[in-house]
């Protein structure tokens, strides 16, 4: 069941700024990572989903409700964490959380209290005295406390220290296990790799790559180039239980793809042979990420 549906969404701010023909679908129970360099169009896309921006063309719907025309109905099912949180400075965290709960008609603060404990937040502090990370924690409490079916999180771990970032990853897993649908923008590779079922990459306002968990698996394979001294060793390795991606009789080189659990098997097998070169081929998801940020990957979808 599609929960968030963005179809051909365009907002042209001029000078090639904005978003252009963006289409994405997020299914029930899916954690969807939205990645892109600074100024790529992540927040602009997300603000359309919140009904803050009217599409120039195209459409965004959540639960089949139109994001521009029916934002109030959508709000009931949604938790939103903005990239830049503008809180009223003169309140304490507790006052703000209670105010946000009242606006939603939320009486049960059990989940809010669980989140406060989980993120080790002292909400009694005045917001103007809070660090960036503390404010972010207040934002997380407000986004999750009403147990919404859908979560839209714009760079959710900004300002959080590594311990709190890992706590956040834990929270995402808990929510996913409850069948929540989550759209999350991020720059952090570990956060995305550890949580997301699918990833879309946006650059200069256009979606340039969409990957699902099957594609991630491809990236998690280990690929090695191995060169042998003797032809007999080269020939015999081809008969073993490894996936041989390439072999070259002239140079006596093989390219082997293995799962993590086969590493010992490969080492044992190679120790019986004379190896003249052993090199890992970089094809990890992180490498793919970095090449995308540097502009080396431009596979259009
Ligand atoms: N109201 C506006 N008027 C003109 N240009 C805008 C407006 N809002 C955003 N932009 C431009 O549109 C582009 C996309 O901005 P957006 O905030 O969506 O990027 P982002 O991917 O969220 O970036 P970051 O990772 O830096 O938060 C940027 O070039 C930005 O300057």
From TrEMBL:
Keywords: ATP-binding, Nucleotide-binding, Transport. Residues 4-229 form the ABC transporter domain. GO terms for molecular function: ATP binding. PANTHER family: ABC TRANSPORTER ATP-BINDING PROTEIN, ABC TRANSPORTER ATP-BINDING PROTEIN NATA. Belongs to the ABC transporter superfamily. This is ABC transporter ATP-binding protein. It comes from Gottfriedia luciferensis.
């Amino acid at each position: 069941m599609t929960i968030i549906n963005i179809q051909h969404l365009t907002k042209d701010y001029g000078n090639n700024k904005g978003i252009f023909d963006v289409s994405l679908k997020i299914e029930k129970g899916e954690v969807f990572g939205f990645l892109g360099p600074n100024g790529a169009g992540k927040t602009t896309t997300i603000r359309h989903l919140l009904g803050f921006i009217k599409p120039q063309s195209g459409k965004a719907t959540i639960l089949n409700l139109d994001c521009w025309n029916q934002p109030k109905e959508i709000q009931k099912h949604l938790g939103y964490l903005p990239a830049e949180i503008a809180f009223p400075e003169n309140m304490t965290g507790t006052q703000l959380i209670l105010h946000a709960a009242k606006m939603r008609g939320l009486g049960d603060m059990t989940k809010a209290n669980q989140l406060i404990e989980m993120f080790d937040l002292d909400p009694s502090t005045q917001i103007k005295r809070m660090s960036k990370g503390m404010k972010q924690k207040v934002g997380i409490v407000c986004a999750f406390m009403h147990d919404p079916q859908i979560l839209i999180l714009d760079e959710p771990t900004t300002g959080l220290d590594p311990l709190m970032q890992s706590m956040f990853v834990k929270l995402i897993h808990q929510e996913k296990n409850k069948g929540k649908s989550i759209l999350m923008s991020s720059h952090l590779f570990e956060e995305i790799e550890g949580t997301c079922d699918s990833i879309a990459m946006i650059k200069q306002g256009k979606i340039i790559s969409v990957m699902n968990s099957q594609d991630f698996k491809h990236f998690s394979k280990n690929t090695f180039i191995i060169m042998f001294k003797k032809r007999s060793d080269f020939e015999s390795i081809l008969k073993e239980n490894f996936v041989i991606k390439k072999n070259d009789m002239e140079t006596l080189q093989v390219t082997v793809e293995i799962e993590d659990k086969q590493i010992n098997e490969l080492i044992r097998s190679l120790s019986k042979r004379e190896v003249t070169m052993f090199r890992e081929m970089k094809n990890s998801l992180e490498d793919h990420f970095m090449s995308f940020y540097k502009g080396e990957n431009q596979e259009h979808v």
